[in-house]
Amino acid sequence: MESVEARHVPVLDALKFLGLWFRRPRSMGAIVPSSGQLAKAIARQVDFDRPGVIVELGGGTGSITRALAERAAAGDEIVVVEREASLSAGLAARFPGIRVICGDAEDLHELLTAAGIGPVKAIVSGLPLLSISRRSRERIIRQCFAVLARDGVFLQFTYGLTCPVRRSAATRARITGCRAGWVLRNLPPATLWRYRWDESLAPAMAEVRDAA
Q1: DSSP line for 55-97
Q2: Which domains does the chain have, with CATH numbers?
Q3: Residue of 77, 108, 150, 163 with fewest CB within 10 Å of its CB?
């Protein structure tokens, strides 16, 4: 039987998330944690049979982390990068087998290199790319593809109506993307986007990595 404490966890998570949203709404993106339906939809996009680690950006209260952990062969297959210290500490306590790094996605290459983490087969991002500055958005994209394996995948979910990576930014980063699905049973409804290196522009990868 589920304990009273376990039943209260989603409520406590929502309250914590809401509090952080009131303090920094532009950096949070949503007022409540991602739903279980969104988390499972994201996990289905990851090939867990391939070698390498999965990096989650902006772990929040762990709904997507849990969905990834349920399908991973081992906890150390997943790395979560969370900037908010309170959320990072909560994730580390809730998922002791998963590596949690308290840091900014704008420094992703440095964070993973310092921790000796790689290769990266997939990156899952819930960062509010549409509400942050263009400079930060493009730096995060460059950082992600600087650490991502050549055949890796970058998954971004968004609550906005437009593509989270502008066409001009994708061109500069030498990546291509497509809408991978909709999740209506989420508050607010979310769209999942999938990005990869553009193989036709593979020789230019060094330029992107050097710029990260």
Answers
A1: EEE--TTSHHHHHHHHH-SSGGGEEEEES-HHHHHHHHHH-TT
A2: 4-211 (3.40.50.150)
A3: 150
